[in-house]
Amino acid sequence: MTKKLFIKTYGCQMNVYDSERMAGALETSGYEVTEDQSEADMILLNTCHIREKAADKVYSELGRLKPLRTTKPGLKIGVAGCVAQAEGTEIFRRQPMVDLVVGPQAYHRLPEMEARVQKGDRAIDTEFPEEDKFDHLPTARGPKARRSPTAFLTVQEGCDKFCAFCVVPYTRGAEVSRPPERLLAEARDLVDRGVVEVTLLGQNVNAYAADGWTLAKLIREMAKIDGLKRIRFTTSHPNDMSDDLIAAHGEEPKLMPYLHLPVQSGSDKVLKAMNRRHTAEKYLSILEKMRAARPDIALSGDFIVGFPGETDADFDATLALCEEVRYAQAYSFKYSPRPGTPAAGREDVPEHVKSERLAALQEMLTKHQAEFQRAQVGKILPVLLEKPGRLPGQIVGRSPYLQAVHLQAETSDIGRIVHAQIVSSEKNSLAAQQAAATYSVV
Ligand code: SAH
Ligand code: SF4
Ligand code: F3S
């Protein structure tokens, strides 16, 4: 009899990818993924440790699961992901009902851990094993293994950059790139299963280096796969933004005109304190090259406000940088001190100052996003139809610039790229017209 597995995924896209791979691993132990938590025989939380709030969510979710665990005999609860890696046995101490704790580099050991858990033991694995977990992690094949037209594909994992605020080098380990032929095979397999857009993932995806291949070469080779129509990648570090990769944006039509390039701050003093190892000017010069290679590129970034030592003048430099770049979209966060990171002991900026700065930055970013979106109105854009929308007959797709686009279309068209005329700009999406003259299937 098949057992049911419910996975709740927090954090970044890599966790989304990992959750699918964990489902694949546990399929071999007789599990099938369910979307209904109440029928689960195992609940796995795939967690994020990036900010305090993200990590706290795990314990509140475990608290909510407690009654279910108590009333449902045989239900097993596991914690995976970056909180599992960072906190390890502390999770059992704080929430004794947890059966299993598994860090991101040990997912291929899940079937064996599950077997121990079934015997009534607790299982924990937060090692960084020598072997490549992906060699031992099957892809989920079962009926519920979702197949949307878009998929993530981890090509690189881990980080050697050690930004002073960040837990990732500790939770994901050192930078490791997967062999190119495996990645091409995995991409072909995804395409065989109906995927038309692949997003290549890595904590420092543009630092990809395996068998003499760069990320640019990997993208160019992947673009040769028939049936694969769009390629994206995330997240890049400014210091690994090679000319080769920049050039690919002007030369490879399948590579989408969108670049997420976090800068964190516009102040060189803060960048230095963050151990970012680049200046604001260096960052801006990369974007300039990028725009020369692909003039319509949509730019995105990440920002941290209220890093220890950030003054009003430093923050103004961040605003000035944003004003200059005019991001199509960007993410901004209040600095959150993380245990074990170099900045954790430094004097924190008062909470109300962080809040004021975040509000000011977000106001500007929102304005720029609206400008970018409004500039799309009237254009005919190729839109990849991804999934049903909220309204009847509505389908949600993506523009090349990664905005969500709503339009009326047939469900049977999901997975297709259509040409649609953008008619209006909403807060976080665009609306497109369904008229036959402006809607053509590619
Ligand atoms: N290079 C990574 C970045 C992961 S963290 C990647 O693969 O995406 C994503 C973003 O979270 C960072 O760019 C940074 O802006 C933010 N972040 C990281 N640590 C943080 C902290 N301690 N407090 C607030 N924001 C943080
Ligand atoms: Fe974290 Fe910096 Fe590495 Fe990104 S580059 S994962 S922010 S340490
Ligand atoms: Fe979070 Fe780990 Fe991703 S800390 S952002 S889940 S790498």
From TrEMBL:
It is found in: Cytoplasm. It catalyses: 2-thio-N(6)-dimethylallyladenosine(37) in tRNA + S-adenosyl-L-methionine = 2-methylsulfanyl-N(6)-dimethylallyladenosine(37) in tRNA + S-adenosyl-L-homocysteine + H(+); N(6)-dimethylallyladenosine(37) in tRNA + (sulfur carrier)-SH + AH2 + 2 S-adenosyl-L-methionine = 2-methylsulfanyl-N(6)-dimethylallyladenosine(37) in tRNA + (sulfur carrier)-H + 5'-deoxyadenosine + L-methionine + A + S-adenosyl-L-homocysteine + 2 H(+); N(6)-dimethylallyladenosine(37) in tRNA + (sulfur carrier)-SH + AH2 + S-adenosyl-L-methionine = 2-thio-N(6)-dimethylallyladenosine(37) in tRNA + (sulfur carrier)-H + 5'-deoxyadenosine + L-methionine + A + H(+). Binds 2 [4Fe-4S] clusters. One cluster is coordinated with 3 cysteines and an exchangeable S-adenosyl-L-methionine. Its cofactor is [4Fe-4S] cluster. Residues 374-436 form the TRAM domain. GO terms for molecular function: 4 iron, 4 sulfur cluster binding; metal ion binding; tRNA-2-methylthio-N(6)-dimethylallyladenosine(37) synthase activity. Keywords: 4Fe-4S, Cytoplasm, Iron, Iron-sulfur, Metal-binding, S-adenosyl-L-methionine, Transferase, tRNA processing. [4Fe-4S] cluster 1 binds at residues 12, 48, 82. Residues 3-119 form the MTTase N-terminal domain. CDD domains: Radical_SAM. Its EC number is 2.8.4.3. Pfam families: Radical_SAM (PF04055), TRAM (PF01938), UPF0004 (PF00919). GO terms for cellular component: cytosol. [4Fe-4S] cluster 2 binds at residues 159, 163, 166. Residues 145-374 form the Radical SAM core domain. Monomer. Catalyzes the methylthiolation of N6-(dimethylallyl)adenosine (i(6)A), leading to the formation of 2-methylthio-N6-(dimethylallyl)adenosine (ms(2)i(6)A) at position 37 in tRNAs that read codons beginning with uridine. Belongs to the methylthiotransferase family. MiaB subfamily. This is tRNA-2-methylthio-N(6)-dimethylallyladenosine synthase. The lineage of its organism: Bacteria, Pseudomonadati, Pseudomonadota, Alphaproteobacteria, Rhodobacterales. The gene is miaB.
